[in-house]
Amino acid sequence: MDLTFLSFGHGYTAQALTPYLNDKGWRVFGTSRTKDNFSNIEKSGAIPILWGSGELRSVINETSLLLSSVSPANGSDPVLQMYGEDLKENSSQIKWAGYLSTIGVYGDTKGEWVDESSPLKPSTNRGIARENAEKNWLKYKFLPTHIFRLGGIYGPNRGPFQKVLQGKAVKIVKPGQVFSRIHIHDIVQTLLASISQPKPYSIYNLCDDNPAPPQDVLSYAAKLLSVEQPPTVSFEDADLSEMARSFYAENKRVSNKLIKSELGIKLMYPDYKAGLDNLLKEAQ
After folding, report:
1. Is the pLDDT of residue 284 over 90?
2. Which of 53, 136, 159, 253, CA to CA, is 20 to 30 A from 182?
3. pTM value?
C-alpha cells in the first residue's frame, strides 16, 4: 500500500513539501477548516480533506507520516485536542510525525546565540503558546514526534520583492536587532532528511547561517531590483501593528549546527543574499 502522508493545516511549508513526497510515491492529504482553500491544496498535489470530517478520521487510520503546522488555540493544540485519541489508536503504523514550531520559544537573548539546548524563555503570547504546544506534542510518547523551530520563512511568492516594488517597504532600524531566516527549499530538504532518518523526540532549529538586520534585507532586495531604496525610519517612530512590533521585542541569533551534524544538511541558501538572488532568478 502507498504511504499516506497527512498534513494538518496544509499551508506554505506543507504545500512546498508535497511535490517531493508525490515524487516518492506518497499520497498526501492536506486539511482545511473550509473548502475555500481546497484549490490551493490541490495545486500543491495534495488531496484536500475537511477538518472535523469523518473522512479525516478514515485517513488517520491509514497514515504513516504526519506533519502539523496548526497554530495553538485557546491554550491547547487543536490537532491533539481533536484527534489525539485517533492518533493514539493508530500510533503503531505512524513512522514519523513533525510539528512546525518557531524560534520565538527562545525569547529575547539581547542578540546572543541560542541552540536547541538553550532555555526557553518566550516573552510573547505567541511564543508561550508554541512552547506549550511543543510540550504537549512531546508528551504523546506514542507518536515519533520531531519538533522543528523555524526562523522567518521566505521563498517564492513570500519575500521582500513585492513590498519593494509596490513602494510599501520601509527600512525600520532598531540598533543591534537581527532576525534569523530560512528559505522554504531548505525547510523542505530538512524535513525530507528527518523523514528518511527519524529520531523521535528530536528538536531542530531551521535557520540560515547569517542572522541579519531587516533593513539590510530590504536594501539588498531594492539593489537587486534596481529601484530606489525604501525610506528609513527608527523603530520608535515606525507605524507597526501590535504583532509586527512584537517581533522586534526579541533579539537573538539562532544556531543551525544540529541539522548539519545530525541530518547532514548543506544549506542551499546559507544567507539572505543567496536566497534573494535565487528568488529573482526564478522570477525572471
Report:
1. no
2. 136
3. 0.96
Range of the domain at 71: 4-155+182-207+254-268
What φ, ψ does residue 178 adopt, rounded to 5°? -135, 160
The SS3 of residue 159 is coil
For residue 204, what are the β-bridge partners? 148
Return phi, psi of residue 245, to 5°: -65, -30
Q: Taking residues 183-212, what's their average pLDDT?
A: 98
pLDDT reading at 243 higher than 90: no
Q: Which pLDDT score is estimated for 1?
A: 44
- Amino acid identity, position 108: D
Nearest to 210 by CA among 276, 255, 244, 160: 255
Kindly report the CATH number assigned to the domain that includes residue 191: 3.40.50.720
d(C-alpha 187, C-alpha 208), whole Å:
10
In terms of C-beta density within 10 A (0-12 exposed, 13-18 middle, 19 or more buried), how is residue 52 classed? Answer: exposed
Name which of 104, 139, 136, 141 is nearest 120 in CA terms. 104
